[in-house]
Amino acid sequence: MASSVQNSRISSPGYCACCRTCNMWCWKGFKWLPVSFIVSIITWSYYAYVIQLCIFTIQSTVQQWIYLVLYHILLIMFVWSYWKTIFAEIEPIPEKYKLPEAELEKMLSAESEDSQRTILENFAKDLPIVTRTMSGSIRYCNRCVLVKPDRAHHCSICARCVLKMDHHCPWVNNCVCFHNYKFFMLFLGYALLYCLFVMATCLPYFIRLWKGDFGTATSSGRYHIIFAFFVSLMFAISLGSLFGYHCYLVVNNRTTLEAFRAPMFRGGADKNGFSIGAFKNFKEVFGNSPNLWLVPVFTSLGDGCEYPVRREHQLQTFTSPQDTHGYESMGITRSSVEMARETERWRLCPRKGRTVPQIV
Ligand SMILES: [Zn+2]
Ligand SMILES: [Zn+2]
């Protein structure tokens, strides 16, 4: 660990500041390419659907209005959620998790990994953290120089730690995490509905054109409608599988990262450690107000640092005897004496699967 901490010190760059700035802007521009691609597809689909299908091909005025109104409602919700996912403000990890200069110096001058571990344990003893590394140590990021809150991870693309990190998504050029997970879910859901709607309403005209009945469609219009059908079908398949998977994760209260590697609690790794029941899990992301569940405004519960955990993991952090193990029960935290005792137990029993004494 000593070497990893030392590596966090800034090394001198091998090229001039001008080249660095140029590279930085190129990289920033490159990261926006997938978003530009999606925006281009949306813009083209608007032209294909509204102009070519609704205005030039459909002849019934009533049908035109119904299609246009429904299409625009879906488009607005889809673009709104997409915008919020991309530009959600990802707040930094709170200051209390950051290692002060004095502690960092102690870490750097520590002679062994055990002493570094003890320094971290002492620093983290008043922090509300429940999970540890696979070896039972405090989860520490040597690049951000902080103790990672539960479910937080370092994103190498954003170059920082983010709360409840799910994954870094190039299609939104942002980390999907605590601050925008609801927006991401709505984006997937509305994008799927948008594709299904375009696909379903294009289908009769697609079949007609395919059979050679061109009606009032112009020659370029035919290709736009046929292409709109295929593109929406292709996106519906990929969005459907991704949305289905994320619904499964929401109901089970897991992030994508946790689905691949279960978080480590005192008694060992537990992929369901944060799961408090399907509906409560859903409300943890979408909030308590049903009126706002489908609206891309932030309503997720909690502060992103502390999460309710299953009863068997609660004793580590929370002393809630009657416990509803929900957000209501998170007010009472353990005393420092309990924390010290527990830290010692963690140290003695860090490995997965070992029997761990219970706090009395
Ligand atoms: Zn970090
Ligand atoms: Zn990221």
Write the topology of this structure.
Blueprint: H1 2-7, H2 17-31, H3 33-57, H4 61-87, H5 101-109, H6 113-124, E1 140-141, E2 146-147, E3 153-155, E4 160-162, E5 167-169, E6 174-176, H7 181-210, H8 219-251, H9 256-260, E7 264-265, E8 268-269, H10 278-286, H11 311-314, H12 336-348
Antiparallel strand pairs: 1-2, 3-4, 5-6, 7-8
Helix pairs in contact: 3-8, 4-7, 5-6, 7-8
The protein binds zinc ion (2 copies).
If you had to describe this structure to a student in words, what would you say it looks like?
This protein has 360 residues and is mainly α. Helices cover 52% and strands 6% of the residues. The chain has twelve helices and eight strands. The strands form four sheets. The protein has a two-stranded antiparallel sheet. A two-stranded antiparallel ribbon has the order 3-4. The radius of gyration is 26 Å and the shape is elongated. The chain starts with a helix and ends in a 12-residue tail after the last helix.
Keywords:
12 helices; 2 domains; two-stranded antiparallel sheet; binds zinc ion
- What percentage of amino acids are in beta strands? 5-15%
Helical coverage, percent range: 40-55%
Q: Indicate the overall shape.
A: elongated
Rg is: 26 Å
What is the count of helical runs? 12
Overall mean pLDDT stands at: 84
Number of domain units: 2
Ligand types: zinc ion
Quick structural gist:
It contains twelve helices and eight strands. With 360 residues, the protein is mostly helical.
